[in-house]
Amino acid sequence: MTPEQFRQHGYQVIDWLADYIENVEEYPVLSRVRPGAIRSRLPDAAPDVGEPFELVLRDLDQIILPGITHWQSPGFFAYFPSNASPASILGDLVSSGLGVQGMLWSTSPACTELEMHVLDWLVDLMGLPAAFKSDGLGGGVIQDTASSSTLSTIVAARARTEKGGRRREKGENGKRNAKSASRDSELVAYASREAHSSVEKGIRIAGIPRENLRLVDVDRELAMDADALARVMTDDVDAGRVPFFVCATIGTTGTTAIDPVRRIGELAREHGAWFHVDAAYAGSAAVCPELRWTHDGVELADSYTFNPHKWLLTNFDCNALYVQDRTSLIDAFSITPEYLRNAASETGDVIDYRDWHVQLGRRFRALKLWFVLRHYGAEGLRAHIRKDVELAQYFAGLVAASDDYELAAPATFGLVCFRHVEGDDTTRAVMDRINDSGRAYLTHTVVDGRVGLRLAIGGVRTERRHVDEVWDLMGSGLDSCIEPEDD
């Protein structure tokens, strides 16, 4: 493909995407194809001879689009948003065009230094602890997802503990500190039973036995019970085990519950454990000063992660991981074969992000985040978050005032969990009714043993009329969702 052909086809693709963005509301939100339908329309083998680009665009319309569940639809409420704003799409396009592999500073200095800089911007924009900035011992790094960040911090926590790490002073009862105990006892991790499944996955990958992960009880609002955590940690220490990793969540996946971060952080420090805060979805809310109360105690965290690709108008994948001491990550992940040695790295004056996580190769993800921050500015991002929170409060008000529905959990951010008062079968039937309409897509969770529906508001183009449409679908045709009782 010559530069001129690339220019011509590039214009076609941008036009196609612009039309898609403009018309996405016209498609059924949830794809209706059956399993195998897409593959059945594809040739058995790749073509021997290249095909005209117009045929690719034709098949994009006729084969691919029917198999798309439209995450960018204003009626997509099923999962936390994965926003592809136009600014981030263009940033990703430039990243793809440059084709940078930013494993080392020397392999593209701009890739590393822009990443450092925009992540420092976010620290200030969100009111995060200054210790997370790159001008000190800490810093931030862009990962693909929060799952990778959780795994990275678990590995770093294990390495730090095995080296001795942060020691817990011997208490009045003569309990051993983490360094001495780690030689002959098992490492134990802690998270709420509402925590994301990535914690358990990370524990498994890191080689920690699954039974050494304690899923701590929650309170009435489904946040971690700090008193229960204190008890189980004390029991483990008394049994000769070593608490090495504690995860608190700001905005759980099921209901956006907020764990008591400060108290959990204090307990982690008391026992010399690594304290990780997972704010994958709700962290973005901290761009609004009035929502920063949710982050009380984050300054105690060894690490903190959130996903700009969820609620901060940056397309997938873009996760931000911050640490107070980057040495812990580097010690855990740095391996330097001869072919990676270079003059810049040897000076120690640069950051090589390949030492901060599992993967060696890295895309230039900071570009799309930079495009978003510059295009929308702080006020534009705050306006987006505030709009979604306002819509969620509006919908929660409709539910609370209804005789047929009730809230299943408090609505703090852009998620509303609710259920039908008739019970689980009716609640599921309502969800099926909404999803079958093609106008909206919801998912369910289980709260206190009962099914609840999740309305996750956060799309770039979601407006009040789209929320009203869901409410109308919940009411109109409701009789058809409920089996009549026998006389």
Q: Can you summarize the main beta sheet?
A: 7 strands, mixed
At the third CATH level, what is the topology name of the domain at 100-363? Aspartate Aminotransferase, domain 2
Question: What percent of residues are in strands?
Answer: 5-15%
Helix content: 40-55%
Key terms:
487 residues; alpha/beta; 41% helix; single chain; Aspartate Aminotransferase, domain 2; seven-stranded mixed beta sheet
Please outline what is shown here.
With 487 residues, the protein is α/β, with parallel strands linked by helices. The chain is built from 16 helices and 11 strands.
Describe this protein's structure.
The protein is of the alpha/beta class. 41% of the residues lie in helices and 12% in strands. Strands 1-7-6-5-4-2-3 form a 7-stranded mixed sheet, with helices on both faces. Helix 5 packs parallel to helix 14 (366-400), helix 6 crosses helix 8 and helix 6 packs across helix 12. The longest helix has 35 residues, at 366-400. 45% of the residues are buried.
